Amino acid sequence: MRKNASAFTLIELLVVIAIIAILAAILFPVFAQAKAAAKKTTDLSNMKQMATASFMYYTDNDDTLFLYRTSTSNPQWNPFWQDPNVGSGACAGSSASKKQFWNVQLYPYIKSHDMFKGPGVTNAWVNVEPGGGSMAGPGGNPDCSYGGQNSYGVNRIVFNANQAAMSASVIAESANTLIITDTTYYDVMPKMSGHDGTNAWAPLGQFIGDPAGTQYFTDNNSDCDYYNYWVQLGGSACDAAAGYTSPYGSVAADNAYIEQVKKRNNGFLNAAFADGHAKSFPAVRVIWDLVDNGNKLTSMWDPWKQGVK
Fold it and tell me: Is residue 135 pLDDT above 60, yes or no?
């Protein structure tokens, strides 16, 4: 006698679907967290390679650090000058073709341009900004790339542009001096003022030809003023169009940008130090370190450890 083939009932099928949905709801966030953790680990590995490369650079150059950017009159100074987005075709004669950025100076020690692309950065690029947009061309042609990269930035207090490079020997505590960290721009600074009006920059100005401490502390109500460069840390960028306004004296305005910074590496920032090691810190610690620790002579941003006096 022929038996009826067994089959799932509708209720059994719905139970199975419900179980799968519950498992997916549980596991998908776990997978997302694991992916984010992997990106953070890769980012820290990149940072370690940059720290080692930096140490090798100034070991090979009489204890002299590199500059974050060098400019010349040579239209072929940029190794990528032949790229039509940099210094050829419509971009011939652009300022970008006459510049080199710090990642190019470290390349011989790393042998990989892609390592300068942060794994947690959307649309990361290096050397040639896709589509330009940096106002680098003749007459400010917005179609020409300015150069550099958009994943890591050097400590602007340590590294100057087109000035005498700092000697590594003047760094008071190399193991506690940040040289590179996660950013969306090629150079960066910490928060320069407290909500109580503290000017954390002024005591450091004497060391780079700004004894009054005003060079980086003038508020022109611009997101991109030098002392607002902290807003380029992590996953943030100086962009008033994003809905933020200057000046950055209010808690609300600061917190809005801080939340953007924290979107990279699950609220952490990786940093390379002058002695060649790399370490991960809570993003808020990196942002406020000069204001909070300058007067204790322990700020990681201050190479001289002179503090806020």
Answer: no
Given a cut of 80, is residue 133 above it in pLDDT? no
**Chain position carrying tokens 């179980």:** 19
In this structure, what DSSP letter does residue 226 have?
G
Range with the poorest average pLDDT among 33-47, 111-125, 126-140, 189-203: 126-140
At 262-302, the pLDDT tens digits run 999 989 999 999 999 999 999 999 999 998 887 788 999 99
Q: Give the Å distances, CA to CA, from 202 to 176, 207, 267.
A: 21, 10, 29
> How would you class 210 by CB atoms within 10 Å of its CB: exposed for 0-12, middle for 13-18, buried for 19 or more?
middle
Alpha-carbon torsion angle 192, 167, 49, 294, nearest 10: -30
Residue 29 token pair: 């966030």
Q: What pTM was computed for the model?
A: 0.84
Burial class (CB in 10 A: 0-12, 13-18, 19+), 32: exposed
Q: Is the pLDDT of residue 134 over 70?
A: no
In sequence order, the 6+-apart residues with CB closer than 8 A to the CB of 294 are 200, 203, 302, 307, 308
Backbone angles phi, psi at 5, to 5 degrees: -65, 135
Residue 91 backbone dihedrals phi, psi, to 5 degrees: -100, 10
DSSP string for 128-186 = S-TT--SS-STTS-TTS---SBSSEEEETTT--BSSPPPBGGG-S-GGG-EEEEEBSSS
Give the pLDDT of residue 211: 66
